[in-house]
Amino acid sequence: MKSIHKYNFFRKKYGAPLLADVVAISEFRKYIQKTPTHRLTYFDLTFITEGSEYITINQNKLLVQGGDVICSTPGDVWTWERNTALEGFALVFEEDFFQSFFINKLYLKELNFLKADRLSPLLRPSEELFTEILELFTKIRNELQVKDISEHVIRALVYLVLAKLNNIEKGQAIDALSEYHNNRHLQGFINLVEEHYLEIHDVQFYADKLFISANYLNKIVRELLGTTSKKYIAHKIVQEAKNLLSFTDMSIAEISNQLKFESPSYFTRFFKRSAGLKPKEFRIGNKTSKNT
């Protein structure tokens, strides 16, 4: 496989373009069996109703089970069990679905469970709330079957789901880190890195975009995230490099080129410094661990 297979949003599933849907896992199981490893290009909130097994998202192996919600953002790489027995429903939507609806164009990026720096892609709502949201999914699916689909009704129901999930986050300890969630420079940096890290590695670029100095940006990142701006960017690059090494047969030179490094040797030094192994060593070790 020369690249990670992409799942794109099916905009015309119901005829006229629509940027949101609720899909049962049983309806896309055949695609999982064909390409268990894939990259999503849209937001995905998967509610697991039955089963218990491992799913890997961006190199993080997670044990998911009934009652769990998997929160995924565009660009995330998923690996399912090829013959997954999980059951549930996925709310999928594109960012543009809300762009004409909210005055605040950054609404989705301000939801803690959809932030690029979220601590975990998993949520565990109460049984009562889980059931309540599944009922909203039924309403969305019913609305999608009528002749004249009301995009406004769909949007309102999706917004209600997001608001209820965000209320969970506000009540959990994870939000004790709200100081950095509310720092506009830090959030601006995180959003910019998410958008540009595959092409631009230079801290100065991000500082310039935020109209602050690189030193001041580094001070903010160090104080609130406990790392440096450079290391934060490097972590994102290494994560993508690991995905490409694990799930494609791209050569080291091809990966180096795709990630915009000056040369394969420079990429190799960078990867070893960050991951502790050379790219080739990581690839061999990763394939060995998957076969045991």
**CATH architecture assignment name of the largest domain:** Sandwich
Looking at how many chains there are and whether they match, the oligomeric state comes to single chain
Number of domains: 2
Report strand %.
Answer: 15-25%
Helix and strand succession?
EEHEEEEEEEHEHHHHHHHHHH
CATH fold annotation of the largest domain: Jelly Rolls
User: What is the CA-atom radius of gyration, in angstroms?
Assistant: 20 Å
Mean model confidence by pLDDT: 86
Structural class by secondary-structure content = alpha+beta
CATH class of the largest domain, named: Mainly Beta
Order of strands side by side in the largest beta sheet?
A: 1-3-8-5-6
Number of strands: 10
Describe the fold and architecture:
- It is a single chain.
- The relative contact order is 0.10.
- A five-stranded mixed beta sheet has the order 1-3-8-5-6, with no helix packed on it. Strands 2-9-4-7-10 form a five-stranded antiparallel beta sheet.
- It has helices at 25-34, 96-99, 127-144, 151-171, 178-181, 184-196, 203-210, 214-225, 229-247, 252-258, 264-275, 279-290; strands spanning 6-7, 20-24, 37-40, 43-50, 52-57, 60-65, 69-72, 77-79, 87-93, 122-123.
- Helix content is 48%, strand content 16%.
- Residues 171-178 have low confidence and may be disordered.
